[in-house]
Specification:
Elements lengths: L1 H7 L7 H10 L4 H5 L2 H27 L8 H10 L8 H21 L8 H4 L3 H20 L6 H10 L6 H24 L15
Keywords: Membrane, Transmembrane, Transmembrane helix
Pfam families: TM_HPP
Organism: Anaeromyxobacter oryzae
Length: about 210
């Protein structure tokens, strides 16, 4: 019955080990006997998600630089909810976002949109449509070729090709923010006792 349930809800049941490991390390396993494990895991995601993004937000506030951007949220969720997934390794996240950044900016340059403003402000034009479509298509293809699939990178490339983030220094900060988030993932997942990689898993699959 447990196997049938896992097949019906493969993602939902994917990573109880993170929460269990942290509770064991903090000597709070009694919570699993007092409360439904789903609720305990939800509480973990609530606290950890807040702390993770808040730390980067504080860094952004102090430095006055954009260390927080929308596609960082899905990356954080992968890191802490399903860390055994190949797409949740530091390598896939860092390489995947780097590909997304490069493809997004290249599409802006190709269609002369580096200084055109965000699509949400100036509207969508045929060159913008082509830039967005091309950036997303190349991001997906190159991630597959590089064996660095990381779905949130698809959002990163669209943020750039749609003009939300275009300044080269800010694009570099996106990659720095991903690297900082990866360091948090390494620390928390290893604290939970998981065999979480420092860079990539031994398997080349992605």
């Amino acid at each position: 019955m447990a196997e049938a349930r896992a097949r019906r809800h493969p993602v939902d049941l994917a990573e109880p080990a993170v929460t269990r490991g942290l509770l064991a390390r903090l000597r709070l396993t009694a919570l699993l006997h007092r409360f439904d494990e789903r609720h305990v895991r939800a509480a973990f995601m609530l606290v950890n998600g807040f702390v993770t993004i808040a730390l980067l937000g504080v860094l952004a506030w102090i430095s006055r630089q954009p260390f927080v951007f929308p596609s960082l949220g899905p990356t954080a969720f992968l890191f802490f909810f399903n860390p055994s997934s190949p797409s949740a390794t530091p390598r896939n996240a860092i390489v995947g976002h780097a590909i997304g950044i490069a493809c997004g900016y290249a599409s802006l340059v190709l269609f002369g949109l580096e200084h055109a403003g965000a699509a949400t402000a100036v509207g969508v034009t045929p060159p913008r449509v082509l830039a967005a479509a091309l950036s997303f298509a190349f991001t997906g293809s190159l991630m597959i070729l590089a064996r660095a699939a990381h779905p949130p990178a698809g959002a990163t490339t669209l943020l750039i090709s749609l003009g939300a983030i275009t300044a080269p220094p800010h694009l570099l900060l996106i990659e720095v923010a991903v690297a900082l988030l990866a360091l948090q993932a390494i620390g928390i997942n290893r604290l939970a006792g998981l065999d979480y990689p420092l860079w990539a898993r031994r398997s080349a699959d992605s």
